[in-house]
Structure formats: structure tokens, C-alpha cells
Amino acid sequence: MSRFLEVRALTKRWSAEVTVGPVSLPIDRGEVLALLGPSGSGKTTLLRLLAGFETPDAGDVVVDGESVARLPPARRRFGMVFQHYALFPHLDVGENVAFGLTGAGRRETGAVEAKVGEALTLVDLAGFERRKVQELSGGQQQRVALARALAPEPRVLLLDEPLSNLDPSLRERTRRELRALIQRLGITTVFVTHEQEEAFALADRIAVLNRGHLDQLGSPEDLYERPATLFSATFVGRANVVRGAAARALGGSNGEALVIRPERLRFVPAAEGTGTPVLAGTVVERRYVGASAFFLVDPDDGERIEVEAAPGAARAGERVRVAALSVHRFPEAG
Amino acid sequence: MSIPDRRPGIMSVALTLLLAWIVVYPILLVAGQAVSGAALADFFGRAGEWRALWASLWISVVSVGLAAAVGVPLALLFEWFEFPGRKTLGSLIALPAVLPPFVGVIAFLFLYGESGFAARAVQVAFGMAESPWRLQGPGAILLVHAYSMYVYFYLLTRAGLAKLDWSMLEAAQALGAGRWATFTRVTLPLLRPSLAGAALLTFMTALGSFSAPYVFGGGFRVMTTQIVASKLNGEMRLAMVETLALALVALAGLAVLRRVEGTDLLVALGKGAAPRRRVLRSAGARATAAIAGWAFAVVLLLPHLTLLLVSLVPYGTWTTQTVPPVLSLANYARLVAEPQRLRPLLNSTWMAAASTAVAVLLALGAGWLAVRRRVRLRPVIESLLALPWALPGTVFAIALATAFSVRAPSALRWVLVGTAVILPLAYLVRGLPLTSRAILAGFRQLDPALDEAAASLGAGVWETFRRVTLPQLRPALAAGASLAFVAALGDFVTSIVLYTYDTRPIAIEILSSLRLNELGVAAAFGVVLMVASATVLAIGARR
User: Fold this and answer.
1) Cα(B467)–Cα(B210) distance, rounded to whole angstroms?
2) Are both A88 and A217 inside the same structural domain?
3) Closest CA to B164 of B190, B143, B126
4) How many other CB atoms are there within 10 angstroms of residue B63's CB atom?
5) What is the DSSP string of A212-261?
């Protein structure tokens, strides 16, 4: 089965200890894929291998049946938005966007101007052609970078931490706009992020990377509901890791670590008694977030866990019993 | 499966060999011939040689002290106090930095020399029969050095003070340190790298100084004048030994001062709040600061004004009067009208332009290889480019004269001495540190992501270089090129060793005009050089 963009056993060996890959990712036409992982997980290396800024030691990248792993970045027709945007400071907004349209020797003709206008309209910056890039706000610079990458009509769009340089108030809105734009263009997109929330909001599927290896590939729901590894379970979404005696108290067997989402834990009323395994402990902190509250519970045996429940479910200092609605089980060593 | 790109490696080897051939090889030839002959024994046997070497050394050390004594207080005055005219004067007194040293020396001669403006005024005022003083010997040399080299201390101290975080000084005061204790225990230690940098610059310049000792030395010889004298006497072997000795002293001085310099703490600590200038409240203090500033400026600029005045005096019209009776542009007209005077102007211009163009190209190649590609030979290339800065011009002049006066293609030597190639080659070697320092710094400031952005937009290596790298390097290119061009345009020290009549540059023509007592023409040449230098540097400094 062949997909539009195929990453095949791509490998980069920085040194004997530090290796990224082999990673294989089949990506459909028009799909949005997030590379999610902590710093040092190899997600940026993977993106740079796709763009062609690094040469792989093994493996291949195939677009629409064409192998591009040996092509220089200039001939891959991949658009890229850099983390710090990398706008050319000596060119104005229009010239930046036109850069990929006017090759060596070619002048800025009417056709180019029209395309630049189109690209800027796409990102809601129509009429900004003659502005200096230094005069723009961070959000505007990000949109110029996006317009510049899209103008030459690339086959694949690559984004390096697209929202990390924006302040939080702007991030939410930009994320929505970016999502809408990508969907409208239907362009195959790969982006790097270290924030789970960002990956969930933008991506159709997420590749979780850990120490240079692909940990799990799946939809946001897959990752949250059916984490394949202890790492994926804890890196994606809020999670309590319960081990040892506490794990056994909540229904785990020997040598098993349980991962439980805070909202899948509940307080068991004193009246209710038998049947369910429960963990006894004391509420040490209550953090109110509106619709619900997070309760930090110090079990009589084991590490503290977080329970999400109705704001009035318990008070700080109260003795409680906690039960799990659903758990993910992993071998203790993992 | 990845195929490493071999081209940068091959290019870096080629560049290293080329630089080694023009920068190091001639010096090695001189060193080789110096130690293998009777001249070595001659050198050790003659008291005059040791005296000259010692003179070079102590003149340089005292020059550092004098330049600091003038430059540091000036910097404090202009950086810390606000008074009328501060900005204008502040940039005016940095002027000697941009003028060719030889022009400064003749300007000094016209003002303070025994038949100069000042001497005449004193002579007339007191009705003396003879000139009241003779400007000659070590004192005169030191005076010229202090006058022209304070600029290094002035500029570097001001730059250091501007970087100083005011809150650090306030912290010291909050901890109970008085004003003086704050200055000695916080300000000065933080300024150490700036001061050491200025000391290094002054020491190296003074050690290589040729114009001042040549014009004002009289019987007093330093190593640079000693070398040129030996060469003119036909004692080439002895000149080589002397050259080697001077080169060794220069390298030793560099090593010692580099150790003192240390790391720049201010850079390490990052940017602080810009210091506020103290506005002097009392009218008396403000007047004192203003007067001191103006007095300094006038004294420091007077020689150049004198030069301008002398250039307006036609030949033979100024004899015994205190003030010249006739002023006209006749001398400037003669520069253009008389072919033998126009020649040096054209010579200097094309030779400076050619050497600068090549120096810029080499620096661009070096920057791309060393900073961009980070080739393995990076440290070697950078040292080769910087080396000519560490050695006096006279050393390179003798080295090139030695290397390229023999035809031996198998040893990569050809006869270039006496041809039109030798002076541009010498200027090129001397200009390399200037262009490469600016251009390599320019390369280091570039964001590699911009190249990647260009590549992702379809631009190849050459197109990226042309459309992204070069436009951003423009300020660095302009700065480096203008410095090298001005240095070559006013060069005296290497020219006097290597020129021929047909290739004589401006500085040599000034010298022969002085010998023929054509003071007006000499001064006019000086003014042209001064204006051209200032203009080129102003263009180069534009952002």
C-alpha cells in the first residue's frame, strides 16, 4: 500500500550513543501529522531530514512515488516554516514571499505579484507587501513565513514548533487559523511540537518520539485511550503512575505499573463498601479550575496521585478512598 | 548512503596554501637566510643593533603609557559628563584613528617642527634669531605617538564604559563603597579587557611605527628605521636579521599582552542598563568640562588644520612672515595639471583598489569556508589571516622583497620586485587582517536558518549566496573594504621599501616634495589623502 509521503526506516547516527531512527511513517495526502516528543527525542532531526537539511545515514523519503532522500532541499518542493521564522531581513514582506517564486535571473513580474498577493491574502495580510519584516508583530511575522512557504505551492508543508514563539493569548487564535488554512488547502503537513495540547488541536495523527525512536503512531484518541507504552501514556495527557502496593490496592497485579488519568479516578463514599478495589489516603491540596477541581491525594502507601472530581467532592485534610474507573497496565520496568 | 561534499575541503586546502604562500613563506625565507650567514654574528656584535632593538621596545612601552594618560581621561570625560558640544567633539577627537599615520606626522611637522607654525610664532613673539626648538629624537617620536595613538584608548575605553552596567556601580555604592572605591574596585577591573585591548593595539602600532621615527628620529634609530637604513645601504642580509629580531619581539609582545587581556566579563554578563550621563549641575563644573573638551579638541586637531593652511600656500610666497601672505588653490591645481604629480595619485588609487578587491574576495572565501562550512583547516586559515596584523609592516616589506626578487618557479618564487605587482601584493597582505576581521564577524552574525529558508524555497548554493548571504554581509563588506582601502591608500612603511619611480604612491611623493621644499604640494597631497580616507571610511561605516 502506498501513501503520498512515506518515511521509510529513516536513520541518522550522530554518534555511537545518539541515533535517531530507524523511523517509518506512512502519511496520506492531505493528512496533518505531528511529531511529538520531549527535547532530545529526535523530532527536530526527523523534520530536518525530511526538509533535506540533514543527510540520512539510512532509509528513504518518498513523495508521490519519487524518492527525494538524495535531493538537495532546493529541489524537494517542500515548504518550511522555521521556528524563528527566518524571514530575510534585507527584503520586505512582498520580496520575502516572492523569494521562492523568482528563481535566479527571473524578475518580479505581474504573475509573481499576483501570486504574492494571493499568498498574503491567504494569511490575512493583504496589502502588507511593502512593509519591512522588522516592523511586524510576532504573529504577523509567523504568517508571512507561512505565506512565503506556501507561495511556491509545495507538495508538503513542514512546520518547526509553529506556535512556540507566540505569546499564550495569541497562540489559541493562531492555532485555529492555522488549522483552518491547512484544511482549506488540503496540503500534506508535518509539524514538530513538544506540547501535547498543540498536537491534539492541529494533527490528524501524532507520532510520539522518545530517545530517537517512534514510540507510537496514532490519532489523538488512540494515544489517549490506548497508549502503547508507559512513555506514551505519561507524555500524552495528564497521568498518574501508580506502582507497588498502591497499584495492587487499585487492582493491579505484581510487577505491574498502572497509568490512570485523573478524571478516571473517583472518590468512593464511605457508605459504599465492597467489591471495588480502593486506595485510602488524605487530601493534601485542592486546586479549583472551574467545572471541576484537582485533588492531590497522599495515599497511606505510595506516591501522591491526582484526582479530578466535582469541586465539592472533598476538602483538604479529609480522609478519602479512591477507586479507578479504568487503568492502563504496563510492566513495571517500562 | 550520504556522499560527503568534498569541495569545501579541497577549497580550504587551496586557500590555506595560497595564504601561506603570501603571508608565511616570505617570512620563513627571511628567517632561513638570516640565521645562515655571517650577518647573524654582525648583528650580535654591533652595539647599534641592540640600541635600536631596545629603543623600539621602550618607545613602545612608554607610548602605551602616554596614550593611556591622554585617552582614558578623555573617554571618561566624554562618556560620563554632559556638556555643550559633547557629541560633535566626541567624534572629532576620534579623527586621528582614520587618518594615515604618515599624514599625521607631516601635519605635526608643519605645526611643531623647527620651521613650523608654532616655532615661528614663538620666535617672532620673543624676537629670537633662531628657531626656539628642534623637534627631534625620542621625545619628538613619543609626542607624535601619544598624539596619534591616544585614540585607541579613547575609543576602546568609551566602548567599554558604554557596555558597563550602571546597576553594578549602584550595587557597589549600596554596599558602602565611595565614589573612588567604586571606580578602582568595580569600574577599572570591568574595563580591564578594554584597556588591555587598547594597550595591545598601541604597543603593536608603536612597535611597527615607521613614519614618526623616520621623520623625527634624527640620529635616534628604532628597529624599523634601522631595517630600512640597512636595506638602503645594501646590507640586505643584516636587514633580514633585523627583520627577524623585530618579528620575534612583536610576537613576544603579542603573547604577553594577550595573556593580560583575559575574557571579556562584560560580554559574559550580558546587557545591562545603559549608564546615564551625569548632567553637571553647577555652572562652574559645566564650564570646566566644556573648556577641557574644547581645549583637547583644538590641540588634537590643530596639526590637521595647519596642514590645510599650508596646502593653500603657493610655492615661495611664505618666507619670514608669521602668517602666510597669499592663499590659493594653486597647489591643488598642480596635483592634477602636472603629470608627474598626478601619477602617484592614480598609482595609489588603483593599487589600493586592486589589493582591497582581492583581500575582500579572499576574506569572503575564508568566511564561507571557516564560518559556514566549518572546515577542518578553520583555525589555520583564521591565524594566517590575522598574522599580518601582529607583525610590523616593515617585516612584510623586507620579507616580500626577499621572496620575490629571485626567479625560482620550483620554489614558487618569481621576480616581482620592481614590477607593478609587488606593492599591491604588499598592500593585500597588510589588508587581509582588516577585511577578514570585519567579514568573518559578519558571517558569524548570519542566521544559518536563513540559508535553509532559501534552500527550502528552491534556491541553490550559489543563488542563496548571491540573494541572501551577500546582501546581509554588505555592511561588513563595506567596513572591511574601506579600512583596507584607506590603509593601502596612505601606506608609507611598506612602500618605501618596495616602490619604484613608476609605481610611487602618494606617501612617497609627499616625501620627495618635502625634500624639494615643495611644502605646499606635500600638504596638498596630505589633505587629499585625509579627505579621501575620511570619505571612504564614512561610506564604509554607513549601515
Assistant:
1) 44
2) yes
3) B190
4) 25
5) TEEEEEE-HHHHHHS-SSHHHHHHSS--EEE-HHHHHHTT--TTEEEEE-
Q: Considering only A140-144, A243-247, A327-331, B332-336, which range has the smallest mean pLDDT?
A: A243-247
Alpha carbon dihedral B289, B294, B296, B298, in 10-degree steps, equals: -170
- Please check the confidence at residue B193 and state whether its pLDDT lies above 60: yes
CA distances from A95 to A70, B19, B52, B460 (A): 29, 39, 62, 18
Same domain, A52 and A91: yes
Q: Are B328 and B131 in contact (CB under 8 A)?
A: no
Of A235, A267, A291, which residue is a domain's last? A235
A85 and A192 in a single domain? The answer is: yes
Give the contacts of B110 (CB within 8 A, at least 6 positions apart). B116, B117, B303, B306, B307, B310, B519, B523
pTM of the predicted structure, to 2 decimals: 0.82
pLDDT of residue B271: 44
Q: Which of A10, A70, A88, A153 to mutate to test the interface with B (most CBs of B within 10 A)?
A: A88
ipTM over 0.90? The verdict is no
Residue A162, SS3 per DSSP: coil
Cα dihedral B62→B64→B67→B72 (10° resolution): -130
User: How many angstroms separate the CA of residue B367 from the nearest CA in chain A?
Assistant: 20
Range of the domain at A205: 5-235
Cβ–Cβ of A90/B471 closer than 8 Å? yes
Q: Name the helix (H) or strand (E) containing A299.
A: strand A293-299
Element of type H or E holding B401? helix B393-403
CA dist A108 and A286 (Å) reads 62
Q: How many residues does chain B have?
A: 543
Query: What are the pLDDT digits (tens) for B132-153?
Result: 788 888 999 999 999 889 989 9
Q: Where do the domains of chain B lie, and which CATH numbers do they carry?
A: 7-36+325-543 (1.10.3720.10), 40-311 (1.10.3720.10)
What was the pLDDT predicted at B272?
Answer: 47
**Cell numbers representing residue B535 in the block:** 570619505
Q: Are the beta carbons of B466 and A86 separated by less than 8 Å?
A: no
Strand partners, A285: A296
Q: Given a cut of 80, is residue B179 above it in pLDDT?
A: no
Residue B398 CB contacts under 8 Å (≥ 6 apart), including other chains: B30, B227, B231, B239, B240, B243, B497
Q: What is the dihedral of CA A133, A138, A140, A141, to 10 degrees?
A: 40
Asked whether residue A316 carries a pLDDT value surpassing 60, the answer given is: yes
**Beta-carbon contacts below 8 Å between A and B:** 78
